[in-house]
Amino acid sequence: MTKSTFIWIMGLVIIAHNLRAAPRAIDLRCELQTNPTDITIQEPRLGWKIVADERRVMQTAYRIIVSSSLDLLQEDVGDLWDSGKITSSNSTAVLYAGKDLSSRTGVFWKVKTFTNVGESDWSMPASWTMGLLHYKDWTGRWIGFDKYQQQDDEATGTLAARYLRKEFTVQKKVKQATAYIIGLGLYEWYLNGKKIGDQVLAPAPTDYTHNIKYNVFDVTQQLQEGKQALGVVLGNGRFYAMRQAKPYKVKTFGFPKLLFQLLLTYTDGSVEVIKTDDSWKGTTDGPIVANNEYDGEQYDARKELTGWTKIGYDDSRWQKAEYVQEPGGNYEAQRIGHMKVMQDLQPISVLKKGSGKYLLDFGQNFSGWVKMRVRGKRGQQVTLRFAESLTEDGNLFTTNLRDAKATDVYILHGEGEEIWEPRFTYHGFRYVEVEGYPGNAQKADFIGRFVYDDIETVGHFSSSNSVLNQIHKNAWWGIASNYKGMPVDCPQRNERQPWLGDRPMSAYGENFLFDNANFYAKWLEDIRLSQKEDGAIPDVAPAFWRYYSDNISWPGTYIMVADMLYQQTADARIVEKHYPAMKKWMHYMRVRYMDESGILTKDSYGDWCFPPATIEEGRGKIADKKYPSALISSAYYYYLLQRMVEFSVLTRNEQDSSEFVHLASQLKNNFNRKFYKGNGSYGANTLTDNLLPMRFGIVTENEKEKLAQRIAAIIEKENHGHLSTGVVGTQWIMRTLTDMGRADLAYRIASNKTYPSWGYMIENGATTIWELWNGNTAHPKMNSQNHVMMLGDLLIWYYENLAGIKSAQNGFQVVEMKPSFVEGLDHVDARYKGLYGEIVSSWKKIGNTLQWTISIPANSRANVFLPTNDVHTISEGGKQITKHDDMEVLGQEAGTVQVAIGSGTYHFIVTR
Q1: Looking at 402-538, which runs of residues are DSSP E strands?
Q2: How confident is the model at residue 244 (pLDDT cuts 50, 70, 90)?
Q3: How does pLDDT run across 805-840, given as a tens digit for each residue?
Q4: What is the pLDDT at residue 38?
Q5: Has residue 406 got a pLDDT over 50?
């Protein structure tokens, strides 16, 4: 039976299959999953997965052949690179080491692997194509209209969509046709009347003065003989800012514009480029009369430009496209997946309201839009308003959207059935109010379109506790809803910003649910490019809002996400690339904000959004209050120094390492002198103030037990089994309690249904994660119902501490499996697709026995901690483990027996 898995090639994903055989020839089949024409680095990371049913399968060597043609590859001629047989277990991070590759070069490769159980056949061929490596590879010029047009409203800053088109003739037989497009802010493009690609809201957003993402499409099959027609429609996106009234705060980049070229390679070897120039025609007098992420899209079907993307359209009344100023940023291939419509939802109810209105309920909070089917008279207007929840009288609750209108408008052209969905907006919603709909609206007339980045779900978790399961489900919907080419805070109100402070540990937990390594690698670039020359890093990156508040805990996410990516993928190049910028920021913060006592004094937010003591105490109160804390900034700086010690060693900056060690030692002493109260508590004796020195290892060894007792007392006695942490403390609470030996307390917090807890959100109707613990009663100014920041380290705890799936070495080549078999939880089933393959941990308690099924992928191994003091109480596959030849008992530790296993599936039974 063949098993399929996923392989990462520095921005590409490959599917590999591995069959067992004797003399154990292993068959690998590789297929590209994402667009192959988007690699712009000379040393891409190659990888493969080995799937085999045998136990303890380890790679001992490999051989890679890379060729310039498929024919050469099939003849085993590596004219670009033949690695030869390399003795190594590395199958996830092999750097291409062949000839330099030029723009548009097609590359074909295959791999043969050698294992301790035999040698494989050659894999099926895989390929990638180099993108445009140089600025001068772009031969076209930017076109558009760099001023307000008649259809725009300059007073309100409202722009109509820009429509651009060109016809041309192909007079020879085409061998290959490749299109390169940068449409800013957002684009859709058409060839001969058909939309190209299934991407939406493309390209991924960046700070366009620093870098710009281009997309690549193979359109060989879409060309026809003779005449051709190109059409591009441009929306605003993040390029033309959603709010023009605050230039001191909001960064804007200009009017929508286009750079495009179509490379035609003919069968006779000649090449032609169709590019953007002033031969293109354009208009703003089309059906999309307004578009904006915050406010929605207005579409007047009476103004449709029927046939404008096809050959022969009369564009004589259109304007000549203008040459416009380029945005300024470097052109880069987009290596993260496109945003797409990833799922369609049917409304669970359609309720007819008074005054000709209907209320749609989709039963789930998500981000995207509604596709509508309608019949009616010409000029009739249908208005769709979006919201996350309802008021007590059953109407839309929109106050928490602030001034985001979250409204789509469709004006009918009146000719039969009309089907419409917006192109250049999205909403965060569960409910939709439909006004002006002609006829009797039915469920089948509306489809909710769930939009997020094309990222695979790689994690699964279920347990015997329904609250834990629902929290996991809510987390998945919330995380996916906020993947928009960058990690945004929320999808509904007039914000939607990539706040660094929301993601320090959330990004880590998200990696257990989604294959988000490329996504967060892109975000690290956004952060690096937003850094000021003096070292300052903003709170929001890309810096669409000019917030450089110089705190530690928000910009420190830069270092923590890099650490997560290295831990989960073992890609050292992430750290190497960003190390100089991280070092500059660490120096910047120290020289500006360390006082004479050696304390880092600068903090902006404190433990942001900690819960009011009771639900009533917070009723109607605004959570947007800052409580700066020098304890938090100093503790975080100490923690980040520890990471920089590791990074300096990894990047061979030994002199830096010594300095970081020295600084950390001094800061630890200064911190304890300043903040330790001598009675087992720190600072203001809050839960967060005590958690941080415990988690970060700042507390001295002789005071550690007192501090642990104090933390437990706050939760058990003062909080009655609940947390009292905001966004800072929640990042660390679950793992800290578990490491203290109080996994029972962490489980109690996670399974609570009363305020404040994740379960309380569910009890009050949440289908995602709220921004505030008291989001149902807080002042509506800041109470998003679809946020991720309060997840903290919960998902990490699910997978690493409840399931026991934790990377111990080289991106899961060694897995530490040490679950907390907490009282009251009878079953956990978790799966995670890592770089080596799927890891499974499924345990259940039956009477006085523990049954634990474990699967470890080939070329990796695990250290398993079984909960018993007696090795003779453990069996696997009906056989006492000391009698197994394919596992090794390493010893006993704190009530557990540690066993080393290799790849394969194991069924352990522990009799207690």
Answers
A1: 407-411, 418-420, 427-435, 446-453, 459-463
A2: confident
A3: 999 988 999 999 999 999 999 999 999 999 999 999
A4: 57
A5: yes
CATH number where 226 lies = 2.60.120.260
Tokens of 243: 């709010």
Question: How far out from the chain centre does Cα 566 lie?
Answer: 16
Q: What is the pLDDT of residues 563-578, one digit of tens each?
A: 999 999 999 999 999 9
Instruction: Please write the tens of the pLDDT for every residue from 636-691.
Output: 999 999 999 999 999 999 999 999 999 999 999 999 999 999 889 999 999 999 99
Return left, alpha or beta for 228; rule: phi > 0 is left, psi -120 to 50 is alpha, else beta: beta
Question: Could you tell me if 434 and 489 lie in one domain?
Answer: no
Predicted TM-score (pTM) of this structure: 0.95
Residue 8 has pLDDT above 60, yes or no: no
Whether residues 432 and 561 share a domain: the answer is no
Domain that holds residue 142: 138-337
What's the pLDDT at 29?
34
Flag whether 806 is in a domain.
no
The answer to whether the bond into 23 is cis (omega within 30° of 0) is: yes
Domain presence at residue 172: yes
Alpha-carbon distances, residue 80 vs 76, 100, 110, 123, 131 (angstroms): 11, 8, 12, 18, 17
Decide if 391 contacts 353 (C-beta within 8 A).
no
- Residue 26: pLDDT band by 50, 70, 90 thresholds? very low
| DSSP state at residue 762 | H
CATH number of residue 64's parent domain? 2.60.40.10
Average pLDDT, integer, range 788-795? 97
Structural domain ending residue among the three candidates 304, 337, 370: 337
Pair of tokens at residue 296:
């929605």
Give the chain's domain count: 5
Please report the pLDDT score of residue 11 as a whole number: 33
Give the ranges where 16-157 is alpha helix by DSSP (H). Answer: 70-74
Asked if 614 and 480 sit in the same domain, the reply is: yes
Give 121-133 pLDDT, tens digit per residue.
898 899 889 999 9
Q: How far apart are alpha carbons 556 and 638 in whole angstroms?
A: 11
Query: 260 and 145, same structural domain?
Result: yes
Q: Which residues contact 658 (CB under 8 A, 6 or more apart)?
A: none
Instruction: Write out 379-422 in H/E/C secondary structure.
Output: CCEEEEEEECEECCCCCEECHHHCCCCCEEEEECCCCCCEEECC
Q: Is residue 421 part of a domain?
A: yes
Handedness of CA 632, 635, 639, 642 (dihedral sign): positive
Does the structure show a pLDDT above 90 at 854?
yes
pLDDT of residue 809: 87
Q: How many residues does the chain have?
A: 912
Does residue 658 share a domain with residue 536? yes
Q: Are residues 60 and 203 in the same domain?
A: no
Instruction: Give the separation between CA 736 and CA 886, rounded to whole angstroms.
Output: 34
Residue 808 in domain: no
Residue ending a domain, choose from 112, 129, 146: 129
State whether 904 and 873 are in the same domain. Answer: yes
Indicate whether 91 and 172 sit together in one domain: no
What does the CA dihedral 147, 151, 155, 161 come to, rounded to 10 degrees?
-70
